[in-house]
Design goal:
216 residues, mainly alpha, flat
């Protein structure tokens, strides 16, 4: 399975949870695939805009709340809200979009999505839909199901686990012992090949006026 297929498969259950929270009981596979694709494109746009703002604001890819807020404003998630240029012209900060976004996050709609996903207690259930309550999201439950030993190292270095620690790879039987040394030697050889040849001093004597003399 390719990495894109894995990401799409992991994104499909949250989209189903949102549909169930909105009151839909069934959907066609083509409709579900379209909604998953739209969600993936939206998240990619949001992440790329946040990375762009991080580079422009503090010249690194460590995201801050300001970077995420600006990215949300770019994709239209914070509405109604004036742009940064309008705020500078009016000399006032418009917080209506942020306030509405916080209200939605803390409101009943998002709470219903979390309840359907099994992240909070099942208090007011939707008629005809039984959702088991729990504290683990679907991905955590899936990992526990396929990992009977309870070792977190099983998924380390994969999209479902933590980032694996980089370990040096030793090269046996060569002039270099690691990939870092091999890369450094390649760069040194490349720089040596691109160095312009030094000018050799001319052996021909010159006259006092500076013009070269014809050698005898």
């Amino acid at each position: 399975m390719s990495s894109n297929a894995i990401y799409i498969s992991l994104l499909r259950p949250p989209v189903l949870h949102i549909l169930r929270a909105a009151g839909f009981h069934a959907t066609k596979p083509a409709v579900l695939d379209t909604l998953v694709d739209l969600t993936a494109r939206y998240l990619i746009l949001l992440a790329s805009n946040a990375a762009t703002h991080a580079q422009e604001n503090h010249n690194d890819l460590v995201l801050t709340v300001t970077d995420v807020r600006m990215a949300l404003q770019d994709v239209g998630a914070l509405w109604p809200q004036k742009s940064a240029m309008e705020e500078n012209l009016l000399d006032e900060e418009d917080m209506r979009g942020v306030d509405n976004f916080v209200k939605w996050m803390m409101g009943a709609d998002n709470r219903e999505i979390r309840r359907v996903a099994g992240l909070i207690e099942n208090e007011d259930s939707i008629p005809g839909i039984e959702v088991p309550a729990g504290k683990d999201d679907f991905l955590t439950a899936l990992k526990k199901k396929h990992n009977k030993t309870g070792e977190s190292s099983r998924f380390q270095g994969t999209v479902m686990g933590t980032v694996a620690e980089e370990k040096p790879i030793r090269i046996e039987g060569g002039p270099v012992e690691s990939l870092q040394d091999w890369g450094a030697s390649l760069r040194a050889t490349s720089l040596k090949g691109n160095t312009p040849p030094s000018r050799q001093p001319s052996l021909a004597p010159t006259s006092s006026t500076g013009s070269p003399l014809t050698p005898i």
